[in-house]
Amino acid sequence: MSQHHHHHHHHHQRDLLKRIMELDFVLLELNLFLDTHPEEQAALRDFARVSEEVKRLKLAYEQKYGLLTIYGYCPERYPWNWIETPWPWEIKY
Fold first, then answer.
1. How far is residue 3 from each of residues 7, 9, 10, 14, 65, measured CA to CA in Å?
2. For 22-62, what is each residue's pLDDT tens digit?
3. In the chain, fewer beta carbons within 10 Å around the N or the C end?
């Protein structure tokens, strides 16, 4: 395994992590928006789409590089938790 290849590998890892963090931020923003605009269909669709994308990226990342928390990236900071939280439209008030 050459030095160059190794560097490239790490670069991809950082890009993937950056993308995940960006999308998580988008979800956070959408989440806050949906708190005040629960009927906003476009935002709900975006939220669902981005959630799927983030889940896919996190899965890909963890299969390749191991758990995300290693890099000081800590999803627990965010106000919801993927698995346990129902979709906004599944919550019955």
1. 6, 10, 11, 17, 18
2. 998 999 999 999 999 989 999 999 999 999 999 999 999 88
3. C
